[in-house]
Amino acid sequence: MTLTSGSHRTEPSTTANERDMLDGWLDYHRSTLAWKCEGLPDEHLRATPLLPSELSLLGLVRHMAEVERYWFREIMLGEELPELYCTDDDPDGDFHFDGKDTWAEAEQVWQTEVELARQAAAGRSLDLASNAESHRRGEVFSLRWVYTHMIEEYARHNGHADLLREHLDGSTGE
Questions:
Q1: Looking at domain 18-169, which CATH architecture does it have?
Q2: What is the pTM of this model?
Q3: How far apart are CA 169 and CA 174, in angstroms?
Q4: In sequence order, which residues have a C-beta less than 8 Å from that of residue 150 and are 6 or more positions away?
Q5: In degrees rounded to 5, what are phi and psi of residue 135?
Q6: Cβ–Cβ under 8 Å, residues 78 and 71
Q7: What is the DSSP string of 20-72?
Q8: Measured between alpha carbons, how far is residue 67 from residues 7, 52, 58, 96, 147 in Å?
Q9: Most buried residue, 80, 85, 152, 154, by CB count within 10 Å?
Q10: 2: helix, coil or strand?
Q11: Model confidence over 14-49: pLDDT tens digits?
């Protein structure tokens, strides 16, 4: 079975300026992850079919909510925010859940974090540097670096999502 790409996934421009190109690719990869989860019941989204790995589609979405929050708001804006799912006792809490955790809740949290990340980046120069104190190793990052990292992060995890989806129901698609 081949997944059909819905109208919600827009190909990035091949001739855009740098900022629009970065926004386009990041939004493309965000939409790709949503597409890989589309139409599956919660039990499939919570499934970890690639044992011993704990990877699941629901876990990937929760993880990306954490990542959006961390890079755009905590690192770039210096906000002090609690973790969404992870704790000191369970640093991989985004991938640990039970039957009460749903796609509806995870998608809402993820989409909220995506929107807050967009707001955090809006109107700011790609040369904007983070505060060294906001990163655990004291490193400084430009907003351009954060965009590039987020595109890489989504692309890597979308590859995981491809494998998970194919294993769950045989669906494939770019």
A1: Up-down Bundle (1.20)
A2: 0.92
A3: 16
A4: 26, 29, 67, 68, 71, 72
A5: -105, 140
A6: no
A7: HHHHHHHHHHHHHHHHHHTT--HHHHH---STT----HHHHHHHHHHHHIIII
A8: 26, 23, 14, 16, 12
A9: 154
A10: strand
A11: 999 999 999 999 999 999 999 999 999 999 999 999
The CA–CA distances, whole Å, from 168 to 32, 46, 86, 119 equal: 17, 11, 26, 35
Per-residue tokens: 91: 């640093």
Stretch (H or E) spanning 151: helix 143-169
Give the list of residues 6+ apart from residue 153 with CB closer than 8 angstroms, or none: 64, 67
Token representation of residue 55: 């990877």
Q: Please, how many CA atoms are within 13 Å of residue 172, restricted to the half-sphere of its CB?
A: 2
**Sign of the C-alpha dihedral, residues 106, 143, 153, 12?**
positive
User: Residue 4 is encoded by which pair of tokens?
Assistant: 């059909």
